[in-house]
């Protein structure tokens, strides 16, 4: 990628395209990888080189690349009704079908589905719903939403505020008011000397309660959590964490929001991460694997407790004054509906359960590598955390860019993976086979050894 030919796609990309989550100076110097095709778990670049997509894109292309049934579903719906909206008592038939389907498979009893186009929009919608809900109940002080350090909930103004990562706030004048962040429940990183996992989980719950009491429970509206934190580093909660958190939320009448944008639809070995971790949320957001990422669609599911208040208030003031042009877009809905059908027919949850032991075993083989501090994961998601010192758990200095360098070596070897802080993340398409898992980690092993040679 160092030799950028004039007028090449890479050169035109530099000339015209501002990328998200990219160092633009480095992009101008090095160019970007330009993908042109995909099939199964592989994507191909403009020169025909194949890469295993170890991240399913951005944790999303669950059925891999080239699922013809999704293509056909989109074309059929494009021909029939390419667009309709959901404002002022209108909708398209396929959007109704999708809403019904989602309520049918929700991890806990849910009442209604609200559609949007991205995870960020879904979580932004939730923030507004929570405020609207409490205003409708006359609890005008109960507005603060607690998220977690290293939580990831998106990049729009409210959802980026919920996100607990410094780069999403820095120089953007975020977070906005009324968003608080409690501790990140990462036992390996934040567990104290001699503290058991159970004691750590208890300390996390105590700290949340302390924050609620310090702020005043009548000011705290909601708590949002990913079942497994994704972009924060694939952090699996300590055993018992959500069992301890939930009674606290109930005690202070605080709504519980599960951000299932990554965990939803089989990733953790159940249809939803909420089932894996025994979470009983009032509100659930989903996106990504809802359509296997073939078209942009997200959804907010709300229970009857929340819906009944929104309904009554919209009746009282005349409208629920929120809605996107593309909410419930019929082509996106048709692709999502077909995706859910495929999950059902191929029994995707069983498929993940069958394949996950191989994935976890192959990943955990790296635990002994001198660069590896922790290997963690559940189902078909995991991370390998790179450390400077295995004994003391000391991290590399951020400017060393250890994860970026490892990703680079892996990319040369035909594997796409990404560093989340210093954790190399793996979240392959759910259709990956055992042989492909072995090949993915064979490539990673070579990339990690190259990194080891590079740091020494
Ligand atoms: N929530 C979680 C857990 C995510 O991982 C993401 C994206 O990675 C989002 C929300 C934001 O979704 P989007 O990028 O579609 O706005």
Characterize this entry briefly.
With 456 residues, the protein is α/β, with parallel strands linked by helices.
Task: Write up what this structure looks like.
The chain has 456 residues and is of the alpha/beta class. Helices cover 41% and strands 15% of the residues. The strands form three sheets. Strands 4-10-9-8-7-5-6 form a seven-stranded mixed β-sheet, with helices on both faces. Strands 1-2-3-13 form a four-stranded mixed β-sheet. A four-stranded antiparallel β-sheet has the order 11-12-15-14, covered by helices on one side. Strand 1 and strand 2 form a beta hairpin. The longest helix is centred in the C-terminal third of the chain and has 22 residues. The chain is globular. The site of pyridoxal-5'-phosphate has 16 residues, from helix 3 and helix 6.
Q: In angstroms, what is the radius of gyration?
A: 22 Å
List cofactors, ions and other ligands.
pyridoxal-5'-phosphate
Record the strand order, biggest sheet: 4-10-9-8-7-5-6
Please count the beta strands (DSSP E, at least 2 residues each): 15
Average pLDDT value? Answer: 97
Q: Count helical runs.
A: 16
Assign a percent range to the helix content.
40-55%
Counting helices, strands and paired strands, the structural category is alpha/beta
What general form does the structure show?
A: globular
GO molecular function, one term: adenosylmethionine-8-amino-7-oxononanoate transaminase activity
Protein name: Aspartate aminotransferase family protein
Family: Belongs to the class-III pyridoxal-phosphate-dependent aminotransferase family.
Organism: Hypericibacter terrae
């Amino acid at each position: 990628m160092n030799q950028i030919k004039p007028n090449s796609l890479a050169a035109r990309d530099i000339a015209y395209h501002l990328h998200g989550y990219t160092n633009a100076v480095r992009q101008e110097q090095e160019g970007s990888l330009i993908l042109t095709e995909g099939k199964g778990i592989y994507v191909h670049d403009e020169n025909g080189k194949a890469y295993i997509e170890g991240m399913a894109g951005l944790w999303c292309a669950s059925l891999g690349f080239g699922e013809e049934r999704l293509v056909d579903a989109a074309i059929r719906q494009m021909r029939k009704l390419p667009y309709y909206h959901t404002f002022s008592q209108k909708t398209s038939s396929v959007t109704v079908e999708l809403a019904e389907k989602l309520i049918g498979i929700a991890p806990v009893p849910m009442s209604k589905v609200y559609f949007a186009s991205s995870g960020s929009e879904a979580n932004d919608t939730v923030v507004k719903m929570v405020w609207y809900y409490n205003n409708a109940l006359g609890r005008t002080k109960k507005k603060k939403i607690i998220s977690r350090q290293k939580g990831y909930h998106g990049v729009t103004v409210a959802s980026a505020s919920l996100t607990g990562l410094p780069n999403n706030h820095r120089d953007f004048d975020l977070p906005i008011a009324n968003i608080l962040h409690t501790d990140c429940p990462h036992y390996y990183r934040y567990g104290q000397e001699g503290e058991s996992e159970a004691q750590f989980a208890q300390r996390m719950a105590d700290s949340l309660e302390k924050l609620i009491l310090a702020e005043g429970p009548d000011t705290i509206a909601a708590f949002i959590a990913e079942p497994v934190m994704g972009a924060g580093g694939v952090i699996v909660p300590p055993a018992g964490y959500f069992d301890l958190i939930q009674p606290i939320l109930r005690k202070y009448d605080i709504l519980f929001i599960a951000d299932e944008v990554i965990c939803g639809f089989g990733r953790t070995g159940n249809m939803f991460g909420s089932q894996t971790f025994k979470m009983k949320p009032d509100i659930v957001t989903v996106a990504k694997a809802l359509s296997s990422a073939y078209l942009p669609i997200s959804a907010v599911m709300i229970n009857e407790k929340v819906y009944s208040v929104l309904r009554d208030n919209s009746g009282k003031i005349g409208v629920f004054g929120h809605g996107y042009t593309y909410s419930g877009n019929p082509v996106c809905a048709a692709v999502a509906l077909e995706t859910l059908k495929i999950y059902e027919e191929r029994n995707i949850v069983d498929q993940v359960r069958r394949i996950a032991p191989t994935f976890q075993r192959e990943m955990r083989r790296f635990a002994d590598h001198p660069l590896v501090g922790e290997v963690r994961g559940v189902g078909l998601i995991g991370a390998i955390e790179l450390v400077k010192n295995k004994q003391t758990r000391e991290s590399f200095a951020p400017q060393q860019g250890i994860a970026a360098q490892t990703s680079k070596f892996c990319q040369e070897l035909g594997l796409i993976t990404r560093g989340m802080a210093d954790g190399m993340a793996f979240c392959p398409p759910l259709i990956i086979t055992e042989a492909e898992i072995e090949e993915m980690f064979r490539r990673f092993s070579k990339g990690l050894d190259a990194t080891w040679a590079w740091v020494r």
